[in-house]
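Quick start: load a record and inspect it. Here is Membrane-bound protein:
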Amino acid sequence: MADDLRERNKKATEKQKRNSEKKEKSAEISEKINSADPVELRKQLSNKNEEYVFKLNKRLTDDDFTEDEAKESIDNLLPEIVANQIKGIPANQLYGPVSKKAGDIAHPVKPKKKTPFWALSIDTSLLFFALFSVLYGVVGLTSTKQTTQNQTGIITLVLLAAMWGVLLTWFNIQMKKPKGERPGLLVTIGYLGAGLVIMFVFLGIMQFVPRSINPGLNGIVYLVLAVVAYGGRFLYRKYMHITTRGFI
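Running the structure step on this input writes:
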């Protein structure tokens, strides 16, 4: 049994060594290809890839590229073409038909800019501010006692909307991740639970803040603020180029 174990360990070590050597060799080849002169790379092209490059060059010049522009565009592709050629992947398989690759070069698709977390949080916070303002406005107008003392203070409303904005934005981002990258269900519930506890503690603390600092507003004023916040959110999303929905 001991001999079998030693033999298995020996084979595993040899396999690991071979894999390491392959990686080193692959890295060396990749470095040589990337540092090679385009003229040398063109000499290494297979007949199939050489034909692809020739047709691509012709297609680009037909699409109003100058010879120098077409050459420069193709030169930038050569390291990738040669590297994949070594793996047995021809250019037409790598890039698709010549017409498609020429179109990609002539009309490159700009990578979609990712909206930062803080910008998405502000977007969601504005939405919640508008929703809460409508709620408090309706409560204020339908309350039997028409007094601002019964209304939630404006500072409370702003901070509450901000908290909901951050919490729901985080949750929305997590749910949009690939299944394997999402946090576990218990972790997600834990974060949401902690966020809700913090909000309730915050609301309790705000009860002790003097009305002179955190005044309640008239119901109509809250409704006006709701309209302003929602309109401001529309302009904000347009300015920040936010196209995603605030919720899943």
